[in-house]
Specification:
Layout: H1 5-21, H2 29-65, H3 68-85, H4 97-129, H5 138-158, H6 174-220
Helix pairs in contact: 1-2, 1-6, 2-3, 3-4, 5-6
């Protein structure tokens, strides 16, 4: 008797789905086992991707097969990686500080550059371009553009934490405080929309899994 691979994979998916959904009745060993399997598979996949797309082509392959210049360049990240492993030992943790400082500096530069070039400038340009409308429905489009502009400005003001000294403690100006209150309203709407999107995605995944269980059981009988 031969068992098809589709049946094996379908049975594994069915069991894992039931094990995850068992959390609805409370924490249990089956749910924890499924979570451990998912974490292990994800960690293994991440390690495989890191090896095939970063470590081997960018580090070890130049050291083994590269030219002298490529080998010298590859030695630098190799040394930084070895120093970073020193963080695992409390006694040798100080040796990993240069590598950690390099990672933090690069990460901060990438984050700031991404925020400025990928968010602030495009958002500013998109907001300004909304006012360049002509033709039919111009008043409606200008009203929508004004709402977007007000939301962007007041949200930025809401995250402005500068304050002036006052007898009762530091306080923001009344005008800034009023704009911040409006920005808080826009932030609340944004978080509500995000929560609704996450909830809808979760419900979609739940319905898809229940449908999968129904179809799988139907295929068996």
């Amino acid at each position: 008797m031969t068992v098809s691979m589709d049946l094996i994979t379908g049975l594994a998916a069915f069991l894992l789905t039931v094990m995850v959904l068992s959390y609805l009745i409370g924490d249990n060993p089956f749910f924890r086992l499924a979570i451990h399997i998912f974490v292990g598979v994800a960690a293994g996949y991440a390690g495989a991707v890191a090896w095939h797309q970063a470590l081997w082509p960018k580090l070890f392959r130049p050291i083994v097969y590269g030219t002298l210049a490529e080998k010298l360049l590859a030695v630098i990240p190799l040394l930084l990686g070895i120093l970073l492993l020193a963080k695992l030992s409390p006694r040798a943790a100080r040796l990993g500080n240069p590598a950690m400082a390099y990672l933090v500096g690069i990460g901060a530069a990438v984050a700031i550059g991404g925020a400025v070039m990928g968010t602030i400038f495009p958002q500013t340009a998109a907001t300004v371009n909304l006012f360049g409308v002509t033709g039919d429905g111009m008043a409606e489009k200008l009203f929508e553009a004004s709402i977007v502009l007000a939301g962007a400005v007041t949200t930025l003001v809401y995250f402005h934490f500068g304050a002036k000294a006052a007898p009762g403690g530091p306080r923001r100006g009344k005008f800034v405080q009023a704009l911040g209150w409006v920005g808080q309203f826009f932030v609340a709407i944004t978080f509500g929309a995000l929560f609704a999107g996450v909830y809808a995605a979760a419900m979609t995944a739940l319905v898809e899994r229940i449908y999968f269980i129904w179809i799988f059981l139907g295929s068996l009988f």
